[in-house]
Amino acid sequence: MAKLDLSALSSIDGFVGAALVDSDSGMALAKLGGGNVDLDLAASGNAEVVKAKRRVASSLKLDDSIEDILISLSRQYHLIRPLERNAALFLYVVLDRAKSNLALSRHELKSFEQQLEFA
User: Phi then psi for 35, rounded to 5 degrees?
Assistant: First the structure.
């Protein structure tokens, strides 16, 4: 597989870091930035978050899919977006809360996903 390019995500206002993660293994397939956030550790932990949310949605018999999961911290937003084309993968993005626009960031993440190319 060719190296996946996440560089377009760095143009999102408040960008700190991003990873494309395999939700089954918790491994980051591609990473960019991160600052003081350990993207490998975050990838692994957030894979568990995605699996847990899917289990709950299944138990509740929700006839719907997860568009994104937002974790709001006092200084950061953590966005988790399972890919529409490949449910085993998700994008994880860390944003500086003071410098980002959450609604616009979600829109830009969705647009990026639609342009993401897998070799």
Answer: 55, -125
Quote the CA–CA distance of 26 and 40 in Å, as a whole number.
Answer: 8
pLDDT digits (tens, 9 = 90+) for 75-100: 999 999 999 989 899 999 999 999 99
Residue with tokens 């568009």: 67
Are 66 and 53 within 8 A, CB to CB?
Answer: yes
Tell how far CA 9 is from the center of its chain. Answer: 11
Quick check: 90 and 83 in contact, CB under 8 A?
yes
Q: Which domains, ranges and CATH numbers included, belong to the chain? A: 7-115 (3.30.450.30)
Q: What is the pLDDT of residues 35-54, one digit of tens each?
A: 999 999 999 999 999 999 99
Name the token pair of 106.
């979600």
What size, in residues, is the chain? 119
